[in-house]
Amino acid sequence: MERPVYCHGWLRGRPNCHPVHPMKHMGIIEDLERNHATMLSWSIMGGGAISLPFLEEQIYGEVPPQLRFHGYMNEKEFNEECLKRGILPFAVIYEAQGWEFPVVLNEEETEILEMNILRSGEDVKWYGLREFTNNQYHKLFKKKFEDYFPGGLYNSDGENVTDLWTECATKDMYGNPTHCRWVEVEGLTRTCHGMCRNNPVWREYLKKNIEIIIDAGARAIQLDETETPICLFGAGGCFCKDCLKQFRVYLRNLKVRGQLPKEMEQFDLETFDYAKFLRERNITWPRNFSSIPFADLYWRFHVETHNKHFQELVTYAREYAGKKGIDIKVSGNFTNMHLLYLPSLDYVDCCTTELRRTVFKRHNWLRMAAGYTQDKPVVLAESPYDGFMPKFVELIHKGKADDYYRLFMMEPAVHGISMAFPYGAWMGNKTKDSFHAPYKTGEEVQDFLYYHDDLFSKKSGANVLVLYSFNSYMQNDWHSGQGENLFYTDADDLLSYSVTYDNRAPEMPFFDITQKMIEKQIPYDVKVLGDGDLVPDTFSIDDLSQYDMVVVPGCDWLTENQAGVINEFAKSKPVYVYGDFAQNLADAVDSLKEQPYSVVVNETGEAPLKEFIEALSAGYDNFRIIAYDNANIYIQKAITGRGMVLHLLNYAFDKEKYKTIRQSLTIDIKLEQFKHISTYTLSGEQIKYDILQSPRQGFVRLKLYDVPCYGAILFHS
Ligand SMILES: [Zn+2]
User: Fold this and answer.
1) Where among 265, 300, 335 does a domain terminate?
2) pLDDT digits (tens, 9 = 90+) for 196-236
3) Number of folded domains in the chain?
4) 252 CA → ligand 1 middle, Å
5) Same domain, residue pair 612 and 690
6) Other C-beta atoms within 10 Å of 487: how many?
7) pLDDT tens figures, 618-645
8) How far is the centre of ligand 1, averaged over its atoms, from the C-alpha of 168 (Å)?
9) Distance between CA atoms of residues 670 and 278, nearest Å
10) What one-character-per-residue DSSP string does 663-680 give?
11) C-alpha of residue 242 to centroid of ligand 1, in Å
């Protein structure tokens, strides 16, 4: 597994100010080496969101002697020092951010005396994308706009662009720029316009940004805010001229294909202005999204377009590097592994994903992420909003969070997913702090992951497959966040945090069912099914060869091929269907019901869900490969080159002492044979065990004693 570092490097007790990260120094390199870092996310070169000369200053700028004394480096030097040590920093491009900051300059306007954080408050001027475009303070960095764009930049109306900041801003339905509220720091400036990547001018700008960082020696790029402008929907965007124009083209193409909604047939698709349409009806975007006329269509258009433009930039980066004989790695930010990024999966080398909320025990989400990303490395990053992060950081400061931290890092690891080691990680725009691992415990976990890398694998050896359909869930998956509410019984007890849904959230049977399967100790893998359009449909009966059962929750849309494969499987092995099944195909559900091994529960709701889970659970007992008798424990099986591993996470917690309560348990595990057993814990101590039953009828019974917050059992093959 990768050992990524969330390497913002932000300072303790200070606000995190995008898009400029604090300067890096040799001490950081030593920390990264000591913690066995393999790659850095959100690490360097993000200044293009202010201006390209600013970015180049970040990369190549002179470092004053006082800072040299303490080992500080510019970003080019830092990147080189990392690469020398086999650490790959991902240079970040903030695709959705366009900034302007308050500055105080010297009289000649050749030097920035104050920026962002002002001392004097005197003679404040502004510097950012707008001033870069009009060369207002070009003496600062001794470079002009024309040095980057000799022929100028022209927008889709053919006009010469004189203000990038306004030109490329995401706009609400009234034409006002919308803001990236998530990075505008409270108490400081509020000057981050969302940037719309549907505007070809912004894509030209981003491409120049890409060229600069590749020329500076970056060997990996993280295109953050991958879905822009969708990330601005909540703030009211985007209805800029390019979004509206491209939507018209999209509608005209639908018309050609005979797929235009009936209600739109009378519209003049040469002039249709969706923002005006909404204004005339006094509709406020995006409130009550599901009831807004054509919102679904506008959403689908944006999903297709954001993938197209993201792929255009990735392809450009690879081609530009390729011409120079350089192999670069590219990653996006597939936030919360939402399905709307899936069409671009093949374009990235690694999936970086910010959690929507950070709470414990979301193993069903982690199973989904493992299936979604297939064989690609996954880098998980906490989210500071609406989860336990602010409390977690507070407890770390008090020295009360060591076992929480161990769980935090090991929960994803047991699924073959890497939680990014927090090194000055982001705490949002409200908490004046940054997230660092508790020093010694941080090292302990990193050492373990380094020395025992061979215990971890995405291969689970599960015998149940759960299907998750792109077309059935893509929109609801994004919007279900609207009805998410954080719930906890004790703010100090991070394990009491969970998420509940209210009636604003669309139904997500996939997550309802898989959560219950986790509780019932039914191990499973996830397969995401494409729609055969944006995401290829490669599903075949071979994908099911290792499974004894298939579960199909809420897959109301399937391709003919997918329905056929499921139907075929149900001739010889159980298929459990919950909710709607392939409504788009006539007779699909009737045909499935005729198969001898299909179990179909069409209704949804509390009672049908209970009935379904009971049936599934009873059915699974015929194929059960694992069972254990302690509800405080979660066990994840992994198939590795050395043998089968059982990873154990222990959630029994003493809220007074802030410590895991050690647990004993008995496990029955299906295993034909093994040579011997090794046990592992983070501290290096062994786990005491008795073999109550050697492999007999294919099962081993094991009694484990005093399991700490994490442990692993390896059955050597
Ligand atoms: Zn736009």
Assistant:
1) 300
2) 999 999 999 999 999 999 999 999 999 999 999 999 999 99
3) 3
4) 18
5) no
6) 11
7) 999 999 999 999 999 999 999 999 999 9
8) 8
9) 59
10) EEEEEEEE-S--S-EEEE
11) 6
